[in-house]
Every structure is written in structure tokens, then in C-alpha cells.
């Protein structure tokens, strides 16, 4: 079971002066995809990066790339992220604002040749977005308030992860991806998996000043019960 869990490093706390080397290090250490956090200073307070950095990661890595769009009006950005090589585009329910707009975004992202995924903030309940599950292959459950790396995982939100898994199972969506984003570390990753997550974002757990990225990824593999 835990072998089907994928790890997606977020580069938010990486050393951008050595980005290519850091990406090669995590790729060699056996991560599954890259999670790129795009912030527009409106949907969340900080400004992070845009298409140029995504293009640089695309050039440095053959891994799949997911862009996490923490932006207002995601429809204005999805075309340019498709053009620079994003495989999955994660938009926020709170940015879309309602079901109809979410459905339109799902269609538009697919038409651009990317896989759509829906991110939900801590305050957004399953009942709000449950109707979209049959149209999706991935939900990204935020276990922090988005905007910053290095926060603590809110363990109370693991119940929501379990509820999303139960809802997906009830719809026979057996290969459904539930991603946890925020605060995952070696000491809590297995609780995330037990709750039903099978894609784990790891930002400061991978890019920090205590370990090399390779050591950090190895520690996550060990915490998942894998030998490295
Ligand atoms: C925050 C981002 C996360 C963040 C995760 O808004 O969406 O992807 O980089 O960082 P950690 O793993 O440090 O919480
Ligand atoms: Zn993210």
C-alpha cells in the first residue's frame, strides 16, 4: 500500500541559486514528481514565481511537473503554464469561487493537454466540492493555510483526507489521487498515508539547512517503510 505513495518535492524553500543541482539531487534520490508553488500576492500574500521558473525546472528534469496555482483568476494563467510544460495544473476551489467555474476550469485545463486537480483550503468542507469528484483524478487537501512553506501540519485536517478517500471509494474512483500539501515531515508522513493520502508534498522537509535534499528524501522513504 505504502509503495504506491508518491513524493512531490516543493521547491519553495530550495536554493534558487543552485536550482538545477537541487532538482537533480531529488530526482536521483527517487522522488516522483515536482510540485511548483505559484503565488500571485493576491490569492495569498506572497509573490513566488511564474512561468520562467517552471520552464527552468522542465529543462532540468524529466519528472512530471504539477503547478499549484495559488492565484486569483486561474483561467488567465493556465495556457502559459501548459506552454512551459506543466503536466498537472492544480487550481483552488476558493479562487474559482463556485462549482460552475470549477467545471469550466477542469474542461479548459484538459483542453490544454494537462491534467486538472482541485486544491481546497482548510476551511472548505468536502460537501462544498464533493460534486466535482467524478470529473477529477486528484484533490489536493491543504493541511496548512497556503502561502508559506515551513508551517506545521494541521492534524485535525487528516479527517478531511479520510472523508475524501471514503467519498472517492464510494464512487468507485479507485485510482484517485489525494495529495496532502503542507507541513509533512518524516515524523508525520505515515499518519498522512494512513488517513488516505497517496501523494505527499514535501517542501521544507526536503529543502532545508539541516540535511542535503538526498538525505531528506531518503529519510522520507524510510518513514514510509522503504529501504533506501
Ligand atoms: C504553501 C505551498 C506548499 C509548501 C509546502 O502554500 O502550497 O506546497 O511549499 O511546504 P512545507 O512542506 O514546508 O509545508
Ligand atoms: Zn503547494
Describe the structure.
With 228 residues, this protein is of the alpha/beta class. The chain has a single domain (2-223), classed as TIM Barrel (Alpha-Beta Barrel), CATH 3.20.20.70. The protein has helices at residues 19-28, 51-60, 78-83, 93-96, 99-111, 126-129, 158-170, 189-195, 213-223; strands spanning 6-9, 34-39, 65-70, 88-92, 115-120, 138-142, 177-181, 199-202. An eight-stranded parallel β-sheet has the order 1-8-7-6-5-4-3-2. It is globular and about 45 Å long. 42% of the residues are buried. The site of D-xylitol-5-phosphate has 21 residues, from strand 2, strand 3 and strand 8.
Short structural description:
With 228 residues, the chain is of the alpha/beta class. The chain has a single domain (2-223), classed as Aldolase class I (TIM Barrel), CATH 3.20.20.
H-E order: EHEHEHEHHEHEHEHEH
Largest beta sheet: strand ordering: 1-8-7-6-5-4-3-2
Percent range for β-strand residues: 15-25%
* CATH class category label: Alpha Beta
Helix content, binned percent: 25-40%
Structural class by helix and strand composition? alpha/beta
Low-confidence stretches: none
Beta strands, count: 8
CATH architecture: Alpha-Beta Barrel
CATH overall fold name = TIM Barrel
Largest sheet: 8 strands, parallel
Amino acid at each position: 500500500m505504502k509503495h504506491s505513495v508518491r513524493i512531490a518535492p516543493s521547491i519553495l524553500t530550495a536554493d534558487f541559486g543552485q536550482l538545477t543541482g537541487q532538482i537533480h539531487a531529488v530526482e536521483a534520490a527517487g522522488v516522483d514528481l515536482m510540485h511548483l508553488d505559484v503565488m500571485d500576492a493576491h490569492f495569498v500574500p506572497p509573490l513566488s514565481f511564474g512561468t520562467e521558473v517552471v520552464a527552468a525546472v522542465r529543462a532540468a528534469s524529466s519528472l512530471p511537473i504539477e503547478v499549484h496555482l495559488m492565484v486569483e483568476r486561474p483561467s488567465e494563467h493556465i495556457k502559459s503554464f501548459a506552454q512551459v510544460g506543466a503536466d498537472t495544473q492544480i487550481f483552488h476551489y476558493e479562487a474559482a469561487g463556485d462549482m460552475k467555474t470549477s467545471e469550466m476550469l477542469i474542461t479548459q485545463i484538459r483542453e490544454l493537454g494537462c491534467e486538472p486537480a482541485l486544491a481546497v483550503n482548510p476551511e472548505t468542507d468536502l460537501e462544498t466540492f464533493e460534486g466535482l469528484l467524478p470529473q477529477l483524478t486528484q484533490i489536493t487537501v491543504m493541511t496548512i493555510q497556503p502561502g508559506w512553506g515551513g508551517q506545521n501540519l494541521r492534524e485535525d485536517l487528516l479527517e478531511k483526507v479520510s472523508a475524501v478517500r471514503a467519498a472517492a471509494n464510494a464512487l468507485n474512483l479507485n485510482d484517485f489521487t489525494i495529495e496532502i500539501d503542507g507541513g509533512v515531515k518524516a515524523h508525520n508522513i505515515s499518519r498522512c498515508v494512513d488517513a488516505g493520502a497517496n501523494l505527499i508534498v514535501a517542501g521544507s522537509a526536503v529543502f532545508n539547512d539541516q540535511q542535503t535534499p538526498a538525505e531528506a528524501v531518503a529519510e522520507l522513504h524510510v518513514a514510509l517503510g522503504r529501504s533506501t
